[in-house]
Specification:
The chain is mainly α. The protein has six helices and no strands.
Length: 133
């Protein structure tokens, strides 16, 4: 049951990244507004951390059967460790960082879209491979 749930979360992550790519490439203003919303409130901050924790755990659980299992194991652990690190800092610090970093990053929204498409596609291909075995 846990394996199926982890697989579903991995697939949803790939779909999310592909959707983010589509919005970034075709409606960049909407993608920019979405990305600026991260760490916008304490509630959103903790929601983001919860999602990161669940996604990181799903990658760690699902990675052994995926294409490039070591890559996805490391990716999952990076999400888990950085999420734990963010829990140590007040959300206001995260908010200040996001207020400075996100506007700079969104200048390259097309590149963000292309990278999201590549990563989302790779995740989906790796997950499909795991379901075929």
């Amino acid at each position: 049951m846990i394996d199926m749930l982890a697989f579903g979360i991995v697939v949803l992550t790939g779909v999310y990244l592909c959707a983010l790519a589509g919005v970034s490439l075709f409606i960049p203003s909407r993608a920019t507004r979405f990305l600026l919303g991260f760490a916008g409130s304490e509630r959103v901050h903790y929601l983001e951390l919860g999602i990161r924790f669940v996604v990181g755990g799903a990658f760690v659980i699902n990675s052994p059967g995926m294409l490039a299992p070591r890559v996805f194991t490391i990716f999952g652990w990076v999400l888990l460790v950085t999420t734990a690190g963010l829990l140590l800092f007040p959300w206001k610090w995260h908010q200040r960082f996001a207020e400075e970093a996100v506007p700079r990053a969104t200048r390259y929204i097309t590149l963000i879209g292309l990278c999201s498409l590549a990563l989302g596609g790779f995740i989906l291909a790796a997950a499909i491979r795991s379901s075929a075995t």
